[in-house]
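Re: Re: token formats

Sure, here are both.
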Amino acid sequence: MRDLLRSDAKIALPTMFAAQSIMTMAAYAIPVVAPAAAPDIGIPTVYVGGFTSLVYLIAMIGGLFAGPLVIRFGTVRVMQTLLLFTAIGTAAFNLGTIATAVFCAIAIGMANGPMNPAGSHVLARTTPPRWRAFVFSAKQCATPMGGVLAGVVVPALLLAYDWKVAIGSVAVASVAVMMLIQPTRTRLDVDRDRTHPIGTGSFVKPLRIAVSRPDLRALAVMGFIYAGAQVTFASYFVVFLTERVALSIASAGLLYAIFSGCGIPIRLFWGIIAERVLSSRTILILTGVCMAIGFALTAQFESAWPFAALSAVTALLGLSANGWVGLFFSEIVRLVPDDQAGEASGGGQFFTYGGIMTMPLIFGGIVAGTGEYYWAFYLLAVLCFVGALQLLLTRPQPAPT
């Protein structure tokens, strides 16, 4: 522990955590207010998946440029720029038109794209190798924290005022964090190179790394499925609970907060035992199995279910679907040379965002076509089991020197 506390990771981790929490809160806040905002904007709630897909279409492309952007401008400056995009996008959503909703999705996508690769770059550089699984998992606790904020703060403001005040709070928080992390730039952006080029080669290299070996390809497929399933569930959960399970928006928001909040302790737990008790790969396989069980149970939700039973299944999904991302990035970093950490993470993230972009549309299409949610949830269950199985059947290779 002393080597960790002596490193600059003690500065990098809270900085990345704060920025990522707010950017994730923005991405999750829109689906939470969708039942209230959709009538004013003039779109059916079932199309909320289209908003999520657009966010991650932009993000999956933007993430490929994260490596050279961070090298040229520094991680903190990049994060401040991403927070600015978040503030502008969420402020625009308040105008309440389809055009501004699309603009908001593009801005939030531009923010979320370089977020994880930038964090991987600075954490790989500042964290002692034996602490990487823990630090990466702790950093990824920012994602469920953003979900908790979206599930607790946003509904509370929505009920007390309206959905515009709820979304406006995200813009204010983005600007506040953007200013608060400025003092860390002196320590964390020391490795920036203002002459580093940014071109088409920067776009292709992360993808080449991500598919260069069978073990990396298996992680990419797993990331595509797990991330797509996780965000699809997050995007439709509140709408599903209010429309089909007949819960109030307050009760649905509480379940959403349980789903997101469970990700915080499980990420820390996995980060502590990863590579000490179980390998990160084994944990990722077990995660897929638990997600498959959770989605199959969710397909059976009915209004007659006790709230405690709904909460238990939601917690299972929170402990599985929200617990894998830090281990995913730490495993990618473990399999590549240190100087490729940011680019490899960007390449792996491309596939996770591909799943996030694609699977909400498929889920929404199934719901729109059948009028039911259970077939869509069963599909998520099958895909998660397949993702775990193909990872189990692929052997990891040592990182090239």
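Second one below.
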Amino acid sequence: MEPIREGASGAAVEDIQERLASLDYEIDAAETDARAFGATTAAAVSRFRVEHELTAGSEVDSATWAVLVDECYQMGDRTLYLRLPSFHGNDVRTLQNCLNILGFSCGEADGCFGVHTEAAVKQFQENVGVFADGMAFQDTFDAIERLHHVWGGKPAAGPHPMGGMGFARAASVLDETHLAITADDPISRNVAGRVWNLASATSDASGVSLVDSPADVTADDSALIILSCDPPKKGSTIANVQVTDIDELPLRIRTAIESCTDVPPVIRIELPCSSDCDGSFTTSDSQTLAVMLLDSICGAFAR
């Protein structure tokens, strides 16, 4: 494109001014009314170029225009997915920031939709019970927006490890929270039993209860947690939390609970083992996993 500079006027200048104004760059009203590229428009362009690490100058060349368009995208304006060349822009950066805060690390929020962002989108989609294909459609953006109270106003750098709960704090959470736990297979039932034992040992007033099936959940329960060694069945809409990154597990559990529309919320936690009882999963493994799960569950419900 031919550079647009001071002295120009017309529709192209109006477009530039509107985009700069949407990004909170100040331009004199007389210039915007006349659609004229005057001194304040030039000053806004100069500031924009410096702040976005472009070469110094006050004209809008092709490089400046491309960055200006990218910065004006809002999350939800377009479908985002892995492609070449990669999608890039403010909407991608916002998506990355939200996912990082919610416990699905994209790495640095660089505004470029790469393989790490696609993987994080897939994990988030599975976590909230929507079709997990790594493509950020409106259903994914809607799920993120419903969680605005979780990520809004939080620092965007990620991941965000929550650390261990500590005995006293975990006991406090267990006293205040009623949770029903069930399981799909022998190994996960063993782990569920150990979680219940640990919760009972942590607090005499523990609100954790073992149930045989989802039908046994009561109105007093804050959530139903289903442990399973197997991936969710195709077409399942139950939020599925994979036990992968231990530091981020409390955030992922909380995200799944907060996004669930069922009352009480129902989530699956997919354990890192197979339901085939081949002897490779030991008693020690079961106890270690139970300790980690109880700590993460308490972390997810802590306020």
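The chain has three domains: 11-72, 90-151, 167-301. Residues 158-162 have pLDDT under 50 and may be disordered.
- S.
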